[in-house]
Amino acid sequence: DSMTVDLHGFHWQTPKIVKFTSRAGGLSIKAQLFVPPNLDPTKKYPAIVHTHQAAIYQEVYVGPGPVKDNVAWYGFNQRLAELGYVVLNVDYRGSSGYGRDFAAADYRDLGGKDAVDVLSGVDYLKSLGYVDMNRLGVYGMSYGGHMVLTLLTKYPDVFRAGVDISGVADFVLNYESL
Length: 178
Hints:
Helices cover 29% and strands 24% of the residues. By secondary structure, the protein is an alpha/beta fold. The protein has a 6-stranded mixed beta sheet with strand order 1-2-4-3-5-6.
């Protein structure tokens, strides 16, 4: 057991599984919603959108599935919520676990409709009423980092900050180096 005493004592919240409709074609998108402990819906909280790595991953349902790494950022999103952030972890089109059509819905359209799915998640956050839309950030790693760059470039007025963790900036150069 490598868990520290602090980790054993940490109150792990069960994120709420939410659904919203994508602006791109009306596709139903699922996400995990983490909220600060003792959320006061009359206050405004900063928010962070997480875009997961590898477009084929899915992170909404933690457990066995086609991708075993679907819990990679679960603890970090928990920590962000504990620090007072609302966190939305989006399974945009291309994610596994929702059927073949959903998994293939980003074919030859990386950074297109899947990015609009993430923006639709921002619409969802706005509808909650307790998210400060002037303090909205986005972070992701690998393909999620590419998604961060896409969102900040195509929609510069939506997010105030973005963190690209080793994101793919150029797919042609990335695959030529293999």
